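During the no-cost extension, the postdoctoral fellow (Dr. R.K.) reprocessed legacy sequence entries with the updated structure-token encoder. One reprocessed record is reproduced below for audit purposes.
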Amino acid sequence: MLLDPRAPRFVAALTALVIVVVLVTASGWVALAQAAVYAIGALNPRWNPYALLFRAVVAPRLARPAELEPAAPVRFSQVVGFVFLLVCAAGYLGGAPVLGLVMGCLALAAAFLSAAFGLCLGCETYLAFRRLTGRAVPSRVPDPTP
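Re-encoded structure tokens follow.
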């Protein structure tokens, strides 16, 4: 499966906004909702609600991307985000707000780096693991549609 590389950045931007809400309100329930969004994206990044919004509203207004990126690194990144926000939610809901704050801040830093600079820490971790284990590293490919 291949993805428009602009979609994960859009998803990361909306995610960063939601995580800011989590941190400002110390809401474990909002963190849990964002964890659910990550879980959907981990199953298939194209199903992520924010990606659906990108495809419905933003993508039609943009030119087609020159290249597409593989979905596997993005899926891995969504799994990592899921774990961080699940622990964040557990911290806030379980009476350990410092744990919630720390995990939320880490998740916010990762989402911000991805949205602002295109640096997906989860994706880079996935690619580094593939290199260390001697597996082929998926790369971007030209968009096959005209």
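The chain has six helices and three strands. The radius of gyration is 16 Å. The remaining legacy entries will be reprocessed before the final report is submitted.
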